[in-house]
Amino acid sequence: MDNVLIQAAFLGDVNWDNMWNATVETLYMSVVALLFTFLFGIVLGLLLFLTDRKQLWENKAAHFVIGAYVNIFRSIPFIILIVLLIPFTRSIVGTFLGPSAALPALIIGAAPFYARMVEIALREIDKGVIEASKAMGATNGQIIRKVLLPESMPALVSGITVTAIALVSYTAMAGVIGAGGLGDLAFRDGFQRNNPEITLTATVIILVIVFALQFIGDMITNKIDKR
Amino acid sequence: MITLSKLAKIFHTKDGDVRAVDDIDLTIDKGEIFGVIGYSGAGKSTLIRMLNMLEAPTSGEVDVAGRPMHSLSKGKLREARQEIGMIFQHFNLLWSRTVAENIAFPLEIKGVSKQDQKKRVDELIQLVGLDGRGGSYPSQLSGGQKQRVGIARALANDPKVLLCDEATSALDPKTTDSILDLLVDINAKLGLTIVLITHEMHVIRKICHRVAVMEAGKIVEQGDVLDIFRRPKQAMTKEFVKQVTEPEETEEALNHLLDREGIGHVLQLTFVGGDTQRPLITDVVRKFDVDISILQGKISQTQHGSYGSLFVSMNGESATVQQAVAYIREQEVEVEVIHGG
Q1: Strand order of the sheet with strand B218-224?
Q2: I need a labelling partner for B174 at 20 to 30 A (CA). Which of A11, A191, B19, B163 fits?
């Protein structure tokens, strides 16, 4: 009798196949969303920075529009954003269920968040360096590729690390509305069917993923920071 | 090499318009080291930044190496800028690149092949005396070394003109001198025209051939460095000249002396050119029946010879002193009797 209880408490009915599939789904959602977030975030962040006053592409209207877009999508709570985006998701993915269907919401929610960090990173660049590049006859494209991005790279990487961790927790929320993954497993199999050990195991796996991300991010940042 | 005509820059601020550069006409010859000196706010920084259009003029014309900088298209301006090197007070190196990569940067911009880049970078590293540091990052270098990288970078595309924006103002005196020596060396070796702005007369004295003194957006005085040192006309210029020629606290020390009883005649002797080598004081004492004691003195080297001033007190018969003074004047040493005359 005791044995059974202990077994129930520590191993319970954890179905490792399901747990593995959910982990893969979470990783899939996080990694794909992260790639697109990185791309869109850099582009948006660059635009935000470059269209600002006294910058290379100074443009009040464009700066206002991009700033407004970033602020709005960064402010909507993620769980509401998913629901709001259901029609959009359905039109481009074909369904609003499953890991792939979570991607549009994840990217649209995380890219503006990262864009702000990109903008801050670019602002940290010494203006003198940009001026020196202009004095050497660099084009705006060369300044972006050879100065802005390389000089802000450590901040861009530590920013994407923070964003990646936020994305992992977004995938768990996306799980609640049927995206799959560890969040979904923890909520349906763990909470709704009263299997706390499943919830606990899913939590531990998410923690491991987050710590791994942070570790990798810190490592890369330290390696590329020559200041 | 450089001609400015009716050049003006007006900044519009909340408190009204500021004429940072006010109708300046200036010609700088090929191969000379031209200095612009002024206090901060005099407009010298705006002036030098208009030479490569980092600052667009409000009106007027800027001709550099035969190109009308003020009227070039964006593309042509970029080409023109590749022929104008610039170094900065805070070096403005890319910290993410090594020394060699920083020096290669303008070559990359110009589209020079990787092979030629490497060859040129090696030459430049040698030229500025950074052998063996090509793989270091700027953060591993001292200020003087960083400025050497800045100079190498500015020279990479064989410019015709080198602009120095307070290039030594962030360096200690010893490092300043070594960077100035390097600039003189480059000027001589490459025949490069150098324009520099500074607030230190020391820099002008040490390396410039000609100098312009700026105040409130205008050039108040300009000419050969030695002439300016010899006969500064404007109050502003005199102030700058004093920075170099008079030892600090001179005035205070002299006033203190003049209060003393029986000080006799106090003379300021100003040496210009090669005269500083001769034993003038010994000559005077041998020829005339006077006692001379040296109160203060400072001799500096300029690009054209020595320059300095010596404060002495002379005791003796009034007539003899007059004769001695006349004798000194004959030796092309300027004498100003500041007491007892």
Answers
A1: B84-88, B161-165, B193-198, B33-37, B210-215, B218-224
A2: B163
Task: Give me the domains of chain A, ranges plus CATH numbers.
Answer: 2-224 (1.10.3720.10)
For residue B180, give both structure tokens.
Answer: 């100035």
Q: Is A72 exposed, middle or buried (0-12, 13-18, 19+ CB in 10 A)?
A: exposed
What is the full DSSP assignment across B271-330? EEEGGGGS-HHHHHHHHSS-EEEEEEEEEEEETTEEEEEEEEEEES-HHHHHHHHHHHHH
Does residue A226 belong to the interface with chain B, where contact is any CB pair within 8 Å?
A: yes
Tell which residue, A145, A158, A157, A153, has the closest CA to residue A226: A153
Q: C-alpha dihedral over B73, B79, B85, B89, to 10 degrees?
A: 50
Q: Kindly state whether residue B203 falls inside one of the protein's structural domains.
A: yes
**Do B21 and B107 fall into the same domain?**
yes
B241 assigned to some structural domain: no
Domain count, chain B: 2
Query: Given CB atoms, is B106 within the 8 Å cutoff of chain A?
Result: yes
Radius of gyration of chain B (CA): 24
Asked if B211 contacts B228 with a C-beta cutoff of 8 angstroms, the reply is yes
Which of B48, B94, B97 best probes binding to A when mutated, by most A CB atoms within 10 angstroms?
Answer: B94
Rounded CA-CA distance B237/B219 in Å is 11
Q: Which of A142, A153, A161 is nearest to A218 (CA)?
A: A161
Residues A215, A217, A222, A224, CA torsion sign: positive
Which residues, numbered 119 to 158 in chain B, qualify as contacts with chain A under a Cβ-Cβ cut-off of 8 Å?
137-139, 153, 157
- Residue B148 — pLDDT band, cuts 50, 70, 90? very high
Q: Minimal Cα distance from A129: which residue of B?
A: B92
Are residues B17 and B151 both part of a single domain?
A: yes
pLDDT in tens, B267-325: 888 877 665 567 888 888 888 888 888 888 877 777 766 777 888 888 888 888 888 88
Nearest to A42 by CA among A119, A150, A106: A119
- For A117-141, the pLDDT digits (tens) are 999 999 999 999 999 999 999 999 9
Strand order in the sheet with B2-13: B16-28, B2-13, B59-64, B67-68
Beta bridge partners of B35: B196, B211
Same domain for B64 and B211:
yes
Instruction: Give the ipTM of the model, two decimals please.
Output: 0.85
Banded model confidence at residue B266, pLDDT cuts 50, 70, 90: confident
